[in-house]
User: Fold this.
Amino acid sequence: MAEFWNINPAYEKAAKAFLQEKPEAEVTLEFDIEVKDFVNAGKGSAEVKNVLKRLGVDPNVLRRIAVASYEAEINVAAHSNGGRMNSFVYDDMVYIRFEDKGPGISDIRQAMVPGWSTADDLVREMGFGAGLGLPNIQKNADLLHITSEYGESTILEIIIYYA
Amino acid sequence: MAGTEKKYYHAIQIVSDNCTGCTSCVKVCPTEAIRVRNGKAQIDPTRCVDCGNCVTICQFHAILPKSDSLDIINNFKYKVAILSSSYAGQFTEDIPYPTAKKALLDLGFDQVAEEAFVTEFIVSIIREYIRQNKHIRPILSSNCPSVVRLIQVKYPSLLPNILHQEAPMSILTRFLREKIQKDTGLEEQDIGIFLIVPCVAHVTAVHQPEGAYKHLQDGAFSIGMIYGKIRERLRKMNGDNSRIDTYEQGLTWALAGVEAEMVDCDDIRALSVNGTDNVLEILSKVEDHYLDQYDYIVLRSCTNGCVGGCLNVENPFVAMSRIKKLIKNAEHQDLDVSDLEKLYKDGQFAVAPLEPRSIMQLDQDIKQAIQKMKKLNEILVMLPGLNCSACGSPTCYALAEDIVSDKASIDDCVVLLKRHQKEED
Assistant:
């Protein structure tokens, strides 16, 4: 099982403690992402954005969450056999987990290199597949954790703190 | 808080006697500002952005646009009308545009100026602004007052992206006020400058401008309101051959698509967006950084731009076609804009940073907001999810929001009420 971690040092302790305990979230959202469904992909992250606006999350943090979750959602639609997005909203952070139905990432390190993409022609025609998805998530999230194995499902988790 | 809340001016009024409570207006409001309570529509002034969608949709003359009465020009010694470019599209082609412009003098104005006069100058300052603010992308156009207010209300994170320069008619106002004072020796308060506008948002912007440093206009008249009077004058003016200058080449301002084309050049990529739903979708994408490849986005709330404003008399597509024809047949004129440039260099057209008008938050305290969100979700699963608006709120989600904010009760849901009645029978 291959794994990739990236954690903002400022939140390392808090984020790891969170992943250990996974306390029950105050507000949860669930969204199914269908294979190559570019019409609806993006609606899950839009829902998260709408909830966070109602909680009064700082506009700049909100934009980071929007970018990271949108990228991850598009990734599932573009590259996987479909999957699910689960969002857990707390009063100081949001934790979003994407789990797909395969086919897995063969080389995560390679996938993290800006500009590298396995996107097929259909995906590129839709204007995606520039190879900036994962690097963009990494840039905007306080924690990014990917576990994957070729032929199996991929789980991508992000945490972003409000302050 | 209550006493300190800002009072917002709106150029829309509800005539309760005419309101049937049909909820058509509730459904078309982009900021969910309207509710039907006790059978009558009510507008939340903190949410309303004066887009005019409710004015257009109401079949019962229950939501009316407000604009000033023409009599107020008599309070001034020198009266100036500034014409919005969409005015030119309101007349059938047998009426030459210069004649339609002259008819305004006949209504009692001493001078009639056109927004179109400053179009090319504005394009040059927009380009300069875009080049000077490379760290902000995309820059969002500020000419549509409804779009500016929509950003303040729903997308406050995008406020720094708004082009912080006055809109064309305001730039022209500043220029004319100075020039007329110099030419006539009149005092500032003796000169009345009025806009002839295509939409309610421009009326609101005259009465409550956003970011304006100085006094701008003294009133706004609806194109629709003066149209009848103009037609009457036109009949009498038959054969009047006196000359008047017109600036057809600048009428592009009334058309959202053409404005973007004018700003677009080798180093500036511009996108044009019009219509409320499109504007909402694009602003959400800008928020997600998905349109950072554009340097400038022209956003207009109405279909095709200002020609789609709810105070116009002609269909937005017909008006657009007429204006395009006028532009096509226009002789190119080199306008002397040196006085405008002087004012611009002097910083006279700058606007103050715009403040948010956040309406989305359930509570100032995030812990409280989360509790309300939990309650909202619990209510939401009980509601039928039909989004029928029969309760007077636009959607089931909005009703749930109203309930947790103590503005409605679950008993307002007509569908649930009917189900309960059936169970009791």
Observations:
- Chain B has 15 helices and eleven strands.
- The mean pLDDT of chain B is 93.
- Chain B touches chain A through 22 residues (CB under 8 Å).
